[in-house]
Automatic annotation (TrEMBL):
This is Cell shape-determining protein MreB. One of its GO terms (biological process) is regulation of cell shape. Keywords: ATP-binding, Cell shape, Cytoplasm, Nucleotide-binding. It comes from the Archaea. Signal peptide: none annotated. InterPro entries: ATPase_NBD, MreB, MreB_MamK-like. The gene is mreB. CDD domains: ASKHA_NBD_MreB-like. One of its GO terms (cellular component) is cytoplasm.
């Protein structure tokens, strides 16, 4: 009995200690146009939660949020008349504060396992060209839900940290982030961004262009979801390397008869739809390279990584090399690196301070 009590005590104590440890919570959040990713530092790994950036709201009062994330995504296109499912972010920018707040609360709840009050610090990734108003909005939202310590970090810098790139190095690295609604090309050296090009164009635009091309070619209307499926399954970008022209069959609505019609989309059609994004990317890369100091060129040559969902499209590595002569690496973890990098900073915010960066140089 005695022993049992002792061991019970021990067990309780352990629980208390563990609880205390798990109470010290810092979260990294990538508030994306399509996906919101939460990373919680857990030893030298992370717990990751992925939430579709969708909320369901009342049509009459869009600030009235009824469902968030997975639950809201299921409602997309299927809601009764008085409810709509929407995305709080468009092209990487917060469109509705109340909806973004609901999404952020949901993310913090998930990351903290419903123990929001235990969260001491969050680090939120924001696009490179975020305005002061947008940055403040993220901070205000976070404070409103009771988190005093909020840091916003450029998504590109967070991605570099999440990729494990030597950001403190003086010789430079480059991150290309191709997201759903916005894209960044950023050069990083001495722990900070030395140059960045951001354009509000990304994977969503490929889907939209594909819908248009299918309509032009077949006189058939397809949904954005179908277009995204084609892009993911058979997508590629134009490049000199011979890539297999894959095909996928999908059902759309014939504009003439209003009847369902099966059509075939191939890789070449997706490449056509992706070409405007490629042009913008090549322009951004060319501008960055034009301004790049010779001290940083070898670091950029050796250490450029592409992150974000669109990094997965076939032929991208080849196309970038052909156009600008940089042999980029495609991230192994393209959707989560921003959140992971943000979580690393959340656990150790001093990593971003100039003195620490200088020390790392020595
Ligand atoms: N295998 C794939 N091939 C091509 N595109 C893909 C693939 N997988 C995902 N995508 C696209 O990547 C985009 C989502 O990427 P990501 O999650 O990085 O965006 P986000 O962070 O939500 O957006 P943003 O950074 O613009 O706010 C979508 O357009 C999606 O369709
Ligand atoms: Mg992103």
């Amino acid at each position: 009995m005695f022993f049992k009590k002792e061991s019970e005590k021990k067990e309780n104590k352990e629980k208390v200690t563990r609880k205390k440890v798990s109470n010290v919570k810092s979260l990294g959040i990538d508030l994306g146009t399509l996906n919101t990713v939460v990373a919680v530092p857990a030893g030298d790994k992370f717990e990751i939660y992925e939430i579709p950036s969708v909320v369901a709201v009342k049509k009459e009062d869009p600030s009235h949020v009824l469902a968030v994330g997975e639950e809201a995504k299921l409602m997309l296109g299927r809601t009764p008349e008085d409810i709509i499912a929407v995305r709080p972010l468009r092209r990487g920018v917060i469109e509705s504060i109340s909806q973004a707040k609901a999404l952020l609360i949901h993310a913090v709840k998930k990351g903290s396992k419903n123990d929001v009050s235990s969260v001491e610090r969050i680090v939120v990734g924001v696009p490179g060209d975020v305005s002061e108003v947008e940055r403040k909005a993220v901070e205000e939202i976070s404070k409103e839900i009771g988190i005093k310590n909020v840091i916003t970090i450029s998504e590109a810098l967070a991605a570099a940290i999440g990729e494990g790139l030597p950001i403190a190095d003086a010789s430079g690295t480059m991150i290309i982030d191709l997201g759903a609604g916005s894209s960044d090309v950023a050069v990083i050296s001495l722990g900070g961004i030395t140059d960045i090009e951001t354009f509000r164009y990304g994977g969503d635009n490929i889907d939209e262009n594909l819908v248009r091309l299918v309509k032009e070619k077949y006189d058939v209307e397809i949904g954005l979801h179908e277009a995204e499926k084609c892009k993911i399954k058979v997508g590629m970008v134009k490049c000199n390397k011979e890539l297999e022209n894959k095909k996928i069959k999908i059902i759309g609505k014939c504009s003439k008869t209003n009847k369902p019609k099966e059509i075939t989309v191939d890789s070449k059609m997706v490449a056509e739809a992706a070409e405007p994004l490629m042009k913008k990317l090549i322009n951004a890369l060319s501008d960055i390279l034009e301004r790049l100091s010779p001290e940083l060129i070898s670091g950029v040559y050796k250490r450029s990584v592409v992150v974000g969902g669109v990094s997965q499209i076939r032929g991208l590595k080849e196309r970038i090399y052909e156009e600008v002569g940089i042999p980029v690496k495609i991230s192994n973890d393209p959707l989560k690196v921003v959140a992971k990098g943000a979580a690393i900073v959340a656990a150790e915010p001093r990593a971003l301070e100039p003195e620490i960066r200088l020390k790392a140089m020595k």
